[in-house]
Amino acid sequence: MTYVSIHDSIAAEGAVYYLFGATGDLARRKLFPALFSLYKEGKLAEDFAVVGLARRPRTDEQFRADIYESIGEFCRYKADEAGQWERFASHFVYMSLDINNVDGFRELARKSVELDAKFNIPGNRLFYLALAPELFGPVSFNLRDGGMLESTGWNRLVIEKPFGYDLESARKLNAQLSQVFKEEEIYRIDHYLGKEMVQNIEVLRFSNAFFEPLWNNQHIANVQISLSETVGVEERGGYYDKSGALRDMVQNHMMQMLAMIAMEPPSRLHPEDIRDEKVKALRSLRPFASAVEVNANVIRGQYSEGESKGKTLAGYRQEDSVNPQSSTETYFAARVYLDNFRWAGVPFYIRTGKRLPVKTTEVVIEFKNVPDNILFAQKHDLAPNLLVIRVNPMEGIYIKINAKKPGVDNVVQPVSMEFCQSCMIGINTPEAYERLIYDAARGESTYFTRWDEVAQAWSFVDRIAEAWREDNGSLQFYPAGSWGPARTDELLAQDGFHWWPVNGQAEDNVIWISGGPK
Ligand code: BG6
Q: Where is the Glucose-6-phosphate dehydrogenase NAD-binding domain (predicted)?
């Protein structure tokens, strides 16, 4: 695997990008801005074309105007260099397509030959399906039957989550896709894997002499992963009510982060070796054996009406397109274990929720204290060392260690050392989608999820979903704007731990000044 810094500008191979769902939200908010940023940084040379595909009629000019608007609103670069926007826009064309009709795909194949010739593209084709998952199969079949996969270059399929609803539906979907594409041609997006600081977990772990030797159950007391959001379900009530936090965040983003923290060092920095290690980590997750076990280790919450910053927030059941009796979870917390030599006995506490007080993603590694019979531990209430990885919106790392209080004899205080990446002037972190599109165009699959990872994550998650189906009483309500059901704290207290404050939590100062409660 090669690490590409944000200043590297090795252009991806020339290709036509087929963007299904080109008039949708994802394209507007993420994909057009990502393509423009890549262009601006020289990662897309002039030998590319983008075909926007959707049902509604649109001219190329209208399509380009939409893209211009999206870049103005969402891109980290401005389209203000003389002539650059016009050059970029000239690579975009639009075609109205009924994805159920193979004739449209035949026409697309004809158009593709022209585009290859016009932009000097060697027949490489990247199909990006920003579509509902039930359309992945039919579109793949029509790509094949319409002659779209017969060019001389490579074909790659990029798809968004959710990949299925459970293991069974995921298997069916995979079986459909694999009739058309080989596993190595399928790029399953989990946009968390495109985040700089998630990718940094690997670098931190495997390139620092003072982390990896301690990265095990001898020295780590527990791991806490928090993915908290302030937003509710917004206009996605219809989708979310069928999905819930377990399927929307845990099966994918949370499991992927956990795998990155827990995996063994890969033998080579090669995508398959890295993904092999992630699968092994997911396989060692201890499955919940019964509904009772799920209940004892998993908390399932839903926000009720609440308040934030003086504003009243509606309860989940009052949100648009949500069943007023819904028992869908908007909050999930769990204590999980990995049964392998490295992690035996170390609890991983994971939590995610909507309508929590802050938007943040953080990983806290809490180290074990020095032995009790050591002089310093006897005399002082020592706070544990922490390594905190801030994923977003703040990006950085800090460590908390114990040091002597200056000028005072015999007083030990926790101090923190911080590297704040997002505070550094001149760092304009690429959006996850830039990295992912760029990687897919280069055939770099490390940060995409392989089928066996997806299946493994589903089999873990399915047991929880099953237990919840049996036991509807486990749903707990929390006021919107609060930190979720109170039982979440008990989960850690049972083991003698507590959640460390995440960035933006009021008690944050406690860490910096006095080291927080023991
Ligand atoms: C998506 C989920 O995958 O991730 C959303 O479907 C969630 O519900 C989003 O809001 C969070 O992503 P990020 O990058 O804003 O943390």
A: 19-200
For residue 12, the CA-to-ligand 1 centroid distance in Å is: 27
**Backbone angles phi and psi of 89, in degrees to 5:** -65, -30
Q: Measuring CA to CA, which residue among 469, 169, 192, 162 is closest to residue 329? A: 469
What is the rounded CA–CA span in Å between residue 411 and residue 405?
5
Sign of torsion over alpha carbons 47, 52, 58, 61: negative
CA–CA dist 187, 146 (Å, integer): 21
Q: Give the Å distance between the CA of 231 and the centre of ligand 1.
A: 10
Q: Would the annotation count 190 as a binding residue?
A: no
Helix (H, G, I), strand (E, B) or coil at 503: coil
User: Can you tell me the distance from the alpha carbon of 273 to that of 255, in angstroms, rounded to the nearest whole number?
Assistant: 18
Q: What is the pLDDT, as a whole number, of residue 425?
A: 67
Domains for the chain: give ranges and CATH numbers. 15-160 (3.40.50.720), 193-512 (3.30.360.10)
Q: Which of 515, 432, 363, 461 is nearest to 29 (CA)?
A: 432
What is the pLDDT, as a whole number, of residue 3?
Answer: 41
Q: Which position has the token pair 């969402």?
A: 74
Q: What is the pTM of this model?
A: 0.92
253 is catalytic: yes
3-class DSSP string for 82-105: CCHHHHHHCCEEEEECCCCCHHHH
Report pLDDT digits (tens) over 326-383: 999 999 999 999 999 999 999 999 999 999 999 999 999 999 998 887 777 777 778 8
Nearest residue CA, atom 9 of ligand 1? 249
Query: Residue 404 to residues 199, 374, 380, 498, 518: CA-CA distances in angstroms?
Result: 34, 16, 11, 25, 18
262-266, 383-387, 471-475, 480-484 — which is least confidently predicted? 471-475
**Ligand 1 pocket, residue 359 CB under 6 Å:** no
What pLDDT was estimated at residue 435? 94
